[in-house]
Amino acid sequence: MNQRIGYARVSTDDQHLDLQRDALQQAGCGVIYEEAASGKNVARLELEHCRKALRSGDTLVVWRLDRLGRSLPDLVQIVADLERSGISFESLTEKIETNSAAGKLVFHVFAALAEFERSLIRERTYAGLAAARARGRSGGRKPKLGDKQLREIKALLHDPDIQVSDVARRYGVSRTTLYKHVGVIKPKKKQPY
């Protein structure tokens, strides 16, 4: 027997699930999974329990699209996973249901928009990096040690009486940073007098 299973979520503990619960019950959901969790959280335990309970032919029902996905791409991914498992999806507020051709069309338009948004973000990022490189800037942090400091460090490390840890402390870096920039420097042997 195919079930209609509801999922309701509020972002914080001081919000109430009553509105969503009532709407899901009116929509014929016999079982409703509820949780108070920010949409930004990747781990939403009740959603995972809900997804495990769904079987082929069932329908996952939510009050509104933003109750299910953290973002449009996340929502598209969840619905695509459901569809691959033979599970329908329905959003009451937006009147989207994927068990009809029209509902699938609307949802695929959403998916196309999500992909378009990702492409725009990627293009803007690459354009910004290219513009920065054209102005002579490169990405990443500025080096901790300048050329003059590296020359001083190399000279200090040639002295057998100076420890690497003392030089690192003096320049405010770790020993690893020193080795990364100057390599291993063998101290010069003392000249007998």
Automatic annotation (TrEMBL):
GO molecular function: DNA binding; DNA strand exchange activity
Domain of life: Bacteria
Biological processes annotated in GO: DNA integration
Protein known as: Resolvase domain-containing protein
Residue ranges of domain Resolvase/invertase-type recombinase catalytic in the record: 3-136
Catalytic-site annotation from UniProt: S11 (o-(5'-phospho-dna)-serine intermediate)
Naturally occurring in which organism (per UniProt): Caballeronia fortuita
InterPro entries, per the entry: Homeodomain-like_sf, Recombinase_CS, Resolv_N, Resolvase-like_N_sf, Resolvase_HTH_dom, SSR_resolvase
Protein family according to the UniProt entry: Belongs to the site-specific recombinase resolvase family.
Keywords per UniProt: DNA integration, DNA invertase, DNA recombination, DNA-binding
Pfam families to which the protein is assigned, alphabetical: HTH_7, Resolvase
